[in-house]
Amino acid sequence: MTDCPLCQNCAFFNGWLVRMPKEAAFYRVKFCGSDFENCARFQVHAATGIKHPTLLPDENDRVKNIISELNYERAAKSGQY
Ligand code: SF4
Asked: Distance (Å, rounded) from C-alpha 6 to C-alpha 73?
C-alpha cells in the first residue's frame, strides 16, 4: 500500500475527516492509502499546485472545470488575458 504524498498536508485528510470517522475510513482505504492518483483532490493539486478548499476525493466530475478555472485565474492574474 502506498500512501498519498499529500497526506500530511491535505486539509481533507487531516481536518474534515476528523469529525466523520466512518467517511474517513472509507476515503482512506479507497484513495489515501492506495488509489490516490484517482482522488479528485490529488488530480487538481497535480495539475495546478493548489489544494482545493471544498473538493471531495470522489468528485472527479468537477476536476476538469476546476483545473480550467484555476488556470484561467492564474493567467488572468499574470496579465495573459
Ligand atoms: S488521496 Fe486525496 S484526500 Fe487523500 S490525502 Fe491524497 S489528496 Fe488528500
From this structure: 23
